[in-house]
Specification:
There is one protein chain. The chain is mainly alpha-helical. It has 5 helices and no strands. It is globular. It starts with a helix and ends in a 6-residue tail after the last helix.
Length: 96
């Protein structure tokens, strides 16, 4: 179920490859938060560091391109989310 939510967020964040420099740091913060949410319920027997690196790779540059198109409110919404479902609900162009 969590994989589906993460995949949904990644698909929702799929956009063109525009300039991401101005929001790279906030997008890195968002990526790390989403990874933390994804790994929150992983068994302690699982190598979280390896999973974290794999997830960073899965996000790729496309995530940064789309994140740069998100509104500040959308990024703030996703950063304050405590579940992947809540983060996904923020959407790539949140304007609440």
């Amino acid at each position: 179920m969590r994989t589906l939510l993460l995949t949904t967020l990644l698909v929702a964040c799929n956009g063109d490859d525009g300039d991401v420099t101005p929001v790279r740091a906030p997008c890195e913060q968002l990526r790390e938060h989403l990874i933390d949410l994804r790994l929150a319920d992983v068994s302690p027997k699982i190598d979280k560091a390896a999973h974290r690196e794999a997830l960073r790779g899965a996000f790729g540059e496309t995530f940064f391109s789309t994140c740069s198109q998100m509104s500040e409110d959308g990024r703030a919404c996703a950063l304050s989310a405590t579940t992947l479902s809540d983060a996904t609900a923020c959407g790539p162009t949140e304007a609440k």
